[in-house]
Amino acid sequence: MGIRADESLNRFMTISSQRKQRFADDKPWTTSAPGGHAWYIYPLYDWKTADIWTWFAKSGEPYNPLYDLMYQAGVPLRYMRICEPFGPEQRQGLWLYHVLEPERWAAMCQRVSGAHSGGVYAGHDNQFYGHRKIDKPDHLTWKSYALFLLDSMPETTAEHYRNKIAVYLRWYQKKGMEDIPDTQPADIGTKDIPSWRRVCKVLLNNDYWCRQLSFSPTKSSHYQRYRKRMEKHRQQWGILCNNN
């Protein structure tokens, strides 16, 4: 299969990691599947956007005509993507649906609650999705607001976030920071500046894998084992456990 290693650190590490088992020493673009019963082969891993479209131009092979519509709508090549529409990153492109495929967009608005609001607001820097600014109740600190948000979630979801946040807090404890600040300048921007306000942004944005706290998704095959291990660690650390 082909992967875009320059788009994802996980994909890059798939190719560059020295810990991966390879099919052969001269085939670094191969990795062993979990259990060792098969091999993943990535002969194309370093192509950039220009390389892909150069190949289509030279080969004359067919491609999805949606890309032509995106080009006509003024979308830069590096931002052209066909993907599921409602992910944390993908929903910022919802506005394109009513431009490119109005009939499909009408069906989406009928079937998915909030699709129209997402198309209006998700691509803008406003308080609706908390991209640039978020608010809290005046009588709460950002830390107490974060704990309130966790307590208001379904327990399974809350535990998922508590595990991630506990690792985040523990990392800063090891760096000599007993607790992260309530707020810091520029703490809800693209750079990971630790604060409870940033944690609140993660929760309000429904950033399930906590990418804004510098996490990567946990592999589904390891997730249950990860949860059990984290429950023990939180008790040992005394962070976001039932006793505090």
From TrEMBL:
GO terms for biological process: cellular response to oxygen levels. Pfam families: DUF3440, PAPS_reduct. GO terms for molecular function: catalytic activity. Residues 1-72 form the Phosphoadenosine phosphosulphate reductase domain. PANTHER family: 3'-PHOSPHOADENOSINE 5'-PHOSPHOSULFATE SULFOTRANSFERASE (PAPS REDUCTASE)_FAD SYNTHETASE, TRANSCRIPTIONAL REGULATOR-RELATED. This is Co-activator of prophage gene expression IbrA. It comes from Klebsiella pneumoniae.
